[in-house]
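Posting for a labmate who doesn't have an account.
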Amino acid sequence: MKIKLHDKYFTSFISAREIDAALDEMAVKIAADIGDVVPVFIGVLNGSFMVVSDFVKKYPKPCEVSFVKLASYEGVESTEDIQRLIGLNENVVGRTVVILEDIIDTGNTLECIYDIFNNKGVKDLRIATLFHKKEAFRKDLKIDYIGIEIPNKFIVGYGLDYNGLGRDLPEVYQIKNTQRMTNIVLFGKPGAGKGTQAEFLKTKYNLVHISTGDVFRFNMKNDTELGKLAKSFIDEGQLVPDSVTIDMLQAEVEKNTDANGFIFDGFPRTTAQAEALDAFLDSKNMELSGTVALEANDEILIERLLERGKISGRADDQDEAKIRNRFEEYNEKTAPLIDFYSTQEKFYSVNGIGTIKDITERLSTVIDALKVEA
């Protein structure tokens, strides 16, 4: 599952069930170690309120609870600017104190809290944390109890936030870092000039142009397994399943792992295909930068195609009725993609009438803006 908080995306990482099991184990372990002594559990706000609340309900013996506050985070980066401790009213001299953290990463906050309590004459001072980023930890402190070791990536949920959002989530999400690539879907009606513009754009931005038609022809001509599979459907007069097309596209992407990005031409053509493409790119830690539609008046496009048909000899470009049928199919199946990508704020429309150079400049203006946003 993927969620968006402010400007960033996060993916499912640790389930509520896993968190509950880790807290169970911590409660049993700490109770066994401390024995019959009544400890003071110190929660560090803001993040630890959910951890402390659930933990003390699981703790099998009497205990006391208090909360302290340190403002130590901004955005997704830990800062060295640690503010003073707020909220400690209990007398902890001669007591057993357990600092109960939601997460320990660099240890900057923890070191400050530990020193404060260590100077207050506590008898036994221990540290427990639900989450621990071992790779990020830089302090010479013993962490007595660790619920779950996690990689050094930013997380939200279960009390942890990203600029105020996400604390209420019952599970934990990990920030999704996508590759910094320019991935474009170029679509439009037949005759809109997608192929011509894709050739210019791939050179200008050093992108890989993946044309669904070219990919199909290559696989069938070279008798690849995917080509044979596609041909078996075509020979039966059936549409090639989206899964086969996606597998072909995946093979093309994996041939070009060092690419700066991709131009997808001819796919997706339906909302189902768009969802499949999103899922595939997500599995590769990639995402679409934007989709660009070349818009043009039907009558102008018909005139273009009829002229093209005189030169190319393509039968489907020489019959006006067939051309109009292709336009109707586009409107029925592909036009809904406008709503799909508009919802993602990834749809852009470009006037496809004018010289090739003029249209390329219009497309470049859109792509340049997408590169800046990335």
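Reply:
Got it, the structure tokens are right above this. The domain at 2-175 is CATH 3.40.50.2020 (Rossmann fold).
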